[in-house]
Amino acid sequence: MEMIYNSATFCVVEIYADGLDPERQAGFEIMDKASRREAYIDGALAERFREEVAELAGDGEASVEDIDDYLATFQSLMRQPMSVH
Length: 85
Fold this sequence. Notes:
This protein has two helices and five strands, in the order ββββααβ. It has 85 residues and is an alpha+beta fold. A five-stranded antiparallel beta sheet has the order 1-2-3-4-5.
């Protein structure tokens, strides 16, 4: 598990299949700090998420607001209350 993004609004953690090996990526946990809700995505959605985040951050010009705006598109999936790991 590795935190890959953290802002005042959102936090994203990449979860690995065996807990340690980045080559065995399993999914992402996206947390909305304001609503204290989270979503776990895996499979095709996680792969699309990875590609879109790489594209967004690719030119190095993306602001925190740009990334937070993108993450906000996942709020409809954030139904689980946040919990401490």
